[in-house]
Amino acid sequence: MSMSRSPDSPSWPPTVRATTRLRRLVTRPEIAFLMEAHDGLSARIVEEAGFEGIWASGLTMSASFGVRDNNELSWSQVTDHVAFMTEASAIPVLVDGDTGYGNFNNMRRLVRKLERVGAGGVTIEDKLFPKTNSFLRAERQPLADIEEFGGKIKAGKDSQTDPDFVIVARVEALIAGWGLGEALKRAEAYHLAGADAILIHSRQSSPAEIFAFLAEWGGRAPVVLVPTKYWRTPTEDFRTRNVSVVVWANHLLRAGISAMQATARQIAEQESLIEVEPVVAPLHEVFRLQGDDELEAAERRYLPTARGPALSAIVLAASAGADFGGLTAETPKAMLKVQGRPILTRLLDDFAHFGCRSALVVRGYRADVVEVPGARYVDNADFATTGEAYSLSLGQTELVAGTLVAFGDIVMKRHIVQALLEEAGPGITLVVDSLLAGADQPDRARCDRADTGRFSFEDVVLTAIGDGVSAAQSHGVWIGLLHLGNDGVSWLMEALDDARAAGTLARERLSDLLTRVVARGRPVRVVYTRGGWVNVNNIADLVEASGI
Ligand code: SPV
Ligand code: MG
């Protein structure tokens, strides 16, 4: 995976080492929060949520493999796995090293390996290998010998090559029921052995024994807490007691389990994806999290066959077309011929000319006769009672960066597509015909500046579109063609979701969706054109189109 190499990752490349950054989190006066992650994907999600560090949890890494938190994953499987996490995120990772996977010698090898895979530090707990999770059969859990465990800490500290690598000693005396005195004795011994911080763990639902420990400990070394069981404790109570680090230890895995169980059950029951698809994370979000942007850019740089930007198309061709008399009784207007070729075929040929290799056509009226070379189809059975936005929503899983969205009834000169592609950015870019400024036509567009006809380096931005723009205010008419970049896909998906939530998806036009996008403050870009296209709505248009 190459996620972290994403050029748009705000914290990549990290200029300060992971070890140093983790050390700062542990030693600074303000509290720090580490969020659990168990693989590269969840590590990336933790970083994007704004956390400053990651807890690579032994419990959740094990569970994500379907095995128990009893050292059923080998230490090298853990360190391999951690490598994916450090690669996927730019924030430091504190690795749950269980008991160190053996004696002092295993600990030395662990520390060296973790340094090499880019971890910021490791926590080891004073139990025996193979360990058991602290919340299972806790009273029966044997503790390590204090001196032996101190030796393990010393060996770890002596073997680190980066002076900032953090070793946290975890005291399990409260978990095993040995009491506060034992916990303090052990914490002190591990502190003297060189531990950078003490993790004091508890399985009680009240923080009382933890607070008692903190009071006695008196800040001799930084303290790390894992409030999984005493989760009701207000964070302010940790802050006022000068806790250094709080670990939210397993909540992403648990959130994932709930969502996966519900989704699996639903698909099994319904034998269909219809209800699930709008609810689950869209595929483009998966690709974004994987850092596909970076790969695409690299392909353009290094692969001769991939130099042109990837292009696909979604063409909306569901409506019947009203003003054609008998002409559309058997043939939807997208299939009417202009100079011997169906409008749709011309359109897809124009797109193919610029490298479009995948086209999805949304059919509706007389879907049976809509068939053109190289297209794939999705059918809008409700075409008579729904509009453009609904048709688009049927193809929304295909909305990816580099998608052209077009009405199926436009005939245009190729240079319009070229102009659009040359200007297309990461957001939404659409073509507006400025010769129709002031015309009383649908899809009127208002922009932040009129078409001056002069070459300008500055972007023209859409300020309003559709019925909300009077003819007098309009700077032109949108021709029914737009390009989506990576952000543009998210913006349009967001608008579809908003329309769905408002209950108006069925009757909205694409211009209504774009109005929603603009209302959210997204900078929709406009490329002006001057004529050279026809939206075929009646026989006169059809005649005009043959001159294009
Ligand atoms: C982990 O997350 O694996 C931990 C914390 O070690 S606990 O599960 O509470 O032991
Ligand atoms: Mg653990």
Please outline the major beta sheet. Answer: 8 strands, parallel, barrel
Bound molecules: sulfopyruvate, magnesium ion
Rough outline = elongated
Euclidean distance between termini CA atoms: 47 Å
Q: In percent, how much strand structure appears in the residues?
A: 15-25%
Number of beta strands: 21
Account of the 3D structure:
There is one protein chain. By secondary structure, the protein is of the alpha/beta class. Helix content is 36%, strand content 18%. It is built from 18 helices and 21 strands. It has helices at 18-27, 40-48, 58-64, 75-88, 104-116, 146-159, 179-193, 208-217, 235-240, 251-270, 283-290, 292-302, 343-353, 388-394, 414-423, 486-502, 510-519, 539-545, and strands spanning 32-37, 53-56, 93-96, 121-125, 166-171, 197-200, 223-225, 245-248, 311-317, 337-338, 341-342, 356-363, 375-379, 403-407, 410-412, 428-433, 444-447, 460-465, 476-484, 525-529, 533-535. The strands form four sheets. An eight-stranded parallel barrel has the order 1-2-3-4-5-6-7-8, surrounded by nine helices. The chain has a five-stranded mixed β-barrel with strand order 16-19-17-18-20. Strand 3, helix 5 (104-116) and strand 4 (121-125) form a beta-alpha-beta unit. Helix 2 packs parallel to helix 4, helix 5 runs parallel beside helix 6 and helix 7 crosses helix 8. The longest helix is centred in the middle third of the chain and has 20 residues, at 251-270. It is elongated. The two termini are 47 Å apart. Mean pLDDT is 92; it is low at 1-10. Residues 57-59, 96 line the site of magnesium ion.
